[in-house]
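Memo to structure team: turn this sequence into structure tokens by end of day. - J.P.
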Amino acid sequence: MTLPTRFDWHKLQQFCSEVFINAGVSREEAALVSESLIQADLRGVDSHGVVRTSIYLKRIEQKMIDPKARVTIEAEDDAIVLVNGNNNFGAIVGSKALDIALQKAKKKGAAIVGVKGSNHFGTGAFYALKAIEKNMIVMVMSNASQTMPPTGGVRPFIGTNPLAIGVPTGMEIPFILDMATSVVARGKIIVAAQKGSDIPLGWAIDKEGNPTTDAKAALEGSVLPVGGPKGYAISMFIDILAGVLTGAGFGKYVNNMYDNWEEPQNVGHFFVAIDINRFMPIEVFKQRMDLYIREIKAEPKANGVNEIFIPGEIEYHRVNERKNNGIELPMTVAEELSQIGKQYNIDLIQAAFIKHVNQDLKEALN
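Reply from structure team:
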């Protein structure tokens, strides 16, 4: 049978979970890491999805990630906590830090949790969605390894340090901002390189500082900050909070998970949680948010625009579409996952999206 490229999201999540369990991750934590990957694919952030499975496994094998490490609290005050991930998975460390932030905010009205000793933690939206379920506003930040030059520079010095914000609503789709501080996340360039595709001009420069559409040349060079010096400044500020302030790596001291096999990444994160009920009853706030969103969407539209979207709305619809129609993976990624599955006697084909497979079979018979 030809290897499928469209997969049922839930079965693919189970596949990844079983792989991580066989690689020595506890069942509970394997499920959480897999959930973070699948949520990225469902939202269309394919660069942070199951494509990362292989590198995560390699980091475990090379003892660059310790899936047995306990996440510990190094310092704690009424509403401020410093967490040490002790080099466990970023999704595990980030989730535990978020839980602490939400619990503290419920007691104190607001909370700040800084994190050091972590790894790549997936998409910020993964955490924003969990906070929204608890009726909290959350800001999530993380630093990353060097991929972006300072404005006026040529070589990478700072990460594409992401910022995510989640705000709950009532009947309307929740507000979720999830952005890299680069024009595009470097992971998208990695995906383009895997596909052999060009990238748009303006995404990146090559190692000599020249604009390029060659994805491979871009990976050897640098991605560019969004908004020029503004994006650079925001990225630097995130690095200060998530890296300098927490004791994690910062700038060139955040190690690259693809290139550095001698030292852990030591990524830093930063969470700010706000209890809405301290300002007004949550239902009143949700009603006000719904009104705000409806009025924005009712604004006059520019020529050629059919609908005004709020941050996170396109991804919300994409989640529903991919849950109904499956997650389409590049053949290279499907082949890589299939080989990983064979190592652990887990058949990737069992995760295939059945409707799609049946349609392919029907077309073949005709």
